[in-house]
Design brief:
Rossmann fold; 231 residues; 2 domains; 10 strands; 38% helix; 4-stranded antiparallel sheet
Length: 231
């Protein structure tokens, strides 16, 4: 193995950045493809896209040989803004699905150990928490407080840092006002289109538990399916 590539791969891993190490099975030549690279013209571009979503390594045929793809992607995270009833249902579901979950809410009456036993719970403002643990492309953000003072900052940060899922609770009217605020803050229209609002899959969810199922479904869809097939 090319030690310089291995060193770079380990560096990317430590910084929660995704990469694929390709190894030509015929001659042993290797390349390192980072998720943020423009590899659209590469003959393996479609396979790279699929592997970055699945996180699975494996052999693929390419031209007159086989190529082994060593896939390194960060473990997916979910940051929930708001320690509300929906969050209480969503946390255990998301953890079962393999997500590393953190709940953030500065309202100490909501963010209590009794309501979220054993969970990663931050009774602080999102600005403070995210300053220490930044968002990234393998993080989903679900904002469910209904309070712009709490929700707006993490939602805008999620869009700027290309989180794989950005969802927000609220009616279409509420979301319309949210979009006006974000536009006034200077966010590009293309970024605003990425917000899943009203949050979650349209399954007619009514109870907090059902809404949690809908939200988790949207998160998994965003993580595993390409935008072209996610609709």
């Amino acid at each position: 193995m090319d030690l310089s590539l291995l060193t770079k791969l380990n560096e990317l891993r430590s910084n929660r950045r995704a990469a694929i190490l390709t190894t030509n099975m015929s001659d042993g030549t290797q390349r390192l493809i980072r998720r943020e690279d423009d590899y659209s013209q590469d003959g393996l571009a479609t396979e790279f896209d699929r592997r970055f979503r699945s996180g699975k390594s494996g052999i693929v045929p390419f031209e007159d040989t086989d190529v082994f793809l060593t896939v390194s992607v960060p473990s997916p995270r979910l940051v929930i803004i708001g320690a509300v009833h929906i969050s209480q249902a969503l946390v255990p579901m998301a953890e079962i699905a393999g997500l590393d979950v953190t709940v953030i809410d500065p309202r100490t009456a909501f963010a209590t150990e009794d309501r979220f036993p054993g969970s990663k719970l931050k009774a602080e403002w999102p600005e403070d928490v995210l300053g220490e643990v930044p968002l990234d492309a393998y993080t989903a953000v679900a904002a469910v407080t209904h309070d712009p003072k709490i929700d707006d900052f993490p939602l805008m940060e999620a869009l700027k840092t290309e989180c794989f899922y950005v969802g927000a609770l609220g009616s279409r009217k509420t979301h319309g006002k949210r979009l006006e605020r974000f536009h006034d803050a200077g966010l590009e229209p293309a970024l605003l289109d990425r917000i899943d609002a009203p949050i979650g899959l349209d399954i007619g969810a009514a109870s907090p538990e059902e809404i949690a199922v809908a939200v988790l479904g949207s998160i998994i869809t965003a993580l595993r399916k390409s935008p072209e097939t996610a609709g």
